[in-house]
Fold this sequence. Notes:
Residues 328-336 have low confidence and may be disordered. This protein is elongated. The protein has helices spanning 10-17, 21-32, 52-62, 72-81, 89-98, 168-182, 199-207, 224-234, 246-262, 274-278, 282-299; strands at residues 119-121, 127-136, 143-151, 157-163, 187-190, 211-214, 319-321. The chain has eleven helices and seven strands. By secondary structure, it is of the alpha/beta class. 38% of the residues lie in helices and 12% in strands. Helix 6 packs parallel to helix 7 (199-207).
Amino acid sequence: MKLTDAKVGTRAAASLTGLVRSTAIRRDKAATAPTPPVPMGQAPEPVNKLTACERRRILDTLNSSRFVDSAPLQIYAQLLDEGTYLCPVSTMYRVLRENRQVSERRRVARHPAKVCPELVATAPRQVYSWDITKLAGPIKGQYFDACVMIDIYSRYIAGVHVHTHESGLLATELMLEILGVHGIPQVVHADRGTSMTSKTVATLLADLEVTRSHSRPRVSNDNPFSEALFKTLKYGPEFPERFRSLTEARQFMDSFTGWYNHEHRHTGIGLHTPADVHYGLATGKAEDRRGVLDAARARHPHRFGTTTPPKILALPDTVWINRPADDTQQTDTTAA
């Protein structure tokens, strides 16, 4: 029962309940006003809804040759300056969204996806990979560029040049030196650095009928053998924090190349040295190793749980850069 029904004035009732009198009057009117019936499952249509004709006019205006390259906010302001009002900016976006036109409306460049390089080597001197790494100089901010080329099958470092800067001409000199000593490969793979994509390098490889291969942009996995070589280089205990001169950097790289090619037993090539694999000596040494293991197994058979040589000593048949998913041949991309 309401206080007003008991003949209590609205001011007194408001004072007793702590409710603002205007609020109580408004609620009382809303409660007594008749409510139009709403069909089940159907919401009432807003009275300010745009008609289909109005929405078509908005869309035609936005897509007109005059405004096709303009943002809705710019169109809204220009039309107001001309004395025309179509609708709010939010409604313009709503109409565009309904027609799936809310996107970059300007003409933008379309870059096709780069092809994933898929390279395979079954013997040395088929696929070479090269890259450039930075060597810290004597002062902060000064670096020397070490350009290194490697045979992906044997992991043999075919050549190293260290300079104060990189350029296509210097890269061409390195290639001419390497190809003159080790022969011309089928493919030369590199990333997309300025030297790798220079016209001098491209012209040289084209004249020699060597296929050029490049990594995809920002995909380091497309050049795994060079990246793994640089990790072996820089994680070694003798790698200095800085080189005091260009001569010292060149001497260090010469020493590292000799150790890596002739002393380092690489896990990716059956724990052989890259030089043994590159020059065809690994097969004979693998037979010698097998003889040693067979003799040890004959002396102490209970110490060997298998009759086959350890897999880590097996020389791979093929080496891949990005082996295809549907290829069932054996692959190896083990780092140094």
